[in-house]
Amino acid sequence: MELIKLRALEPGDIDFLYRIENNRDLWHLSHTQQPFSRQILEQYIRDADRDIYEARQLRLAIVIPEPDQLIGFIDLFDFDPKNRRAGVGIIIHKDYQNRSYGNHALKTLIDFAFKILFLHQLYANISVDNLPSIQLFEKNGFQRIGIKKDWNFNGVTYTDEYMYQLIAPEEYKFN
Hints:
Strand content: 25-35%
Distance between the termini: 34 Å
CATH class: Alpha Beta
Helix content: 25-40%
């Protein structure tokens, strides 16, 4: 049995999405500065069926198949079909962290991005103090390619941010 599966957003995801998007402790990860209304998030879910080529982003739900438990989201953002690249973001509810769910979700997304979307590369921006994310992305082949100095302001001080990149391995490349 699969540890996790990725699926499209569904209307029943609204309560979980509302809690994640309005959790101020997580806003620094997405650079959010204000809460989202339930109505806005319901509209977001209704529009989530738009093609990635139109929307330039894709959010997938991370679900434990039995008993169909939503535990997080994984995103492709800043999708650039011309240059065949996209950014990656992931959030796992704190109750489900450190159980390999994020690792399996990222592996599944990488496979989808390279095999189905035929992307050439993925990238991630990670705060230098987010050690779990750094470990997750490095474990999955992402290489640190740079550092953005004093990139994010947390209300008290500035923090640096690493940029990670994964070029499609040979087994995914096509002409």
